[in-house]
Design goal:
The chain is mainly alpha-helical. The protein has helices at about 1-30, 35-50, 75, 80-90, 105-120. It has 2 domains: about 1-30; about 35-120, Orthogonal Bundle (Cytochrome Bc1 Complex, Chain D, domain 2). It binds heme C (HEC).
Length: about 120
């Protein structure tokens, strides 16, 4: 009986340490910022849709040289976040793609990029 009691308290001790450890690991992942594709869709509708179209494939009415990039395409979607961020932030010289850093904050650019990621074609 006494032995069983010791084993029981050991077991309880171990599980509480286990839970404590689990909570600690979870806390570490909390500060990671999640960008908001819903806020990004709002920005996209107001600022990007007139060239890139509702599905990212380009607006029908727009005639530009070069044409707006197809944001749903593999060519765009395979690029890294940092590279697309820079493109939206700084624009592309000698194209209609302007530098959005003058109108959008960095967080807004990340939000709109989160939305652009939802346009990926499977
Ligand atoms: C006035 C028209 C216009 C507007 C508005 C516009 N773009 Fe563009 N965008 C372009 C054109 C044109 C290109 C293609 C440039 C090229 O040929 O590489 C482009 C390219 C891009 C690319 C791909 C860049 C690359 O090199 O792969 C991304 C991403 C992009 N635009 C995102 C956005 C976002 C997000 C917005 C809204 C904040 C936006 N664009 C607004 C015209 C526009």
């Amino acid at each position: 009986m006494r032995f069983a009691g010791i084993m029981l308290s050991l077991f309880v001790g171990m599980t509480s340490v286990g839970f404590g450890g689990g909570a600690g690991v979870k806390d570490l992942s909390m500060p990671v910022k999640q960008y908001d594709a819903v806020a990004g869709r709002e920005i996209y509708t107001n600022t990007c849709i007139r060239c890139h179209g509702i599905d990212g494939k380009g607006a029908m009415s727009i005639q530009l040289v070069p044409q707006p990039a197809d944001l749903s395409s593999q060519a765009v979607q395979s690029r890294l976040d940092a590279s697309l961020f820079k493109r939206i932030h700084d624009g592309k010289p000698n194209t209609a793609m302007g530098a959005w850093s003058t109108t959008l904050s960095d967080d807004e650019i990340w939000d709109v990029l989160a939305y652009v990621r939802t346009l990926r074609q499977e």
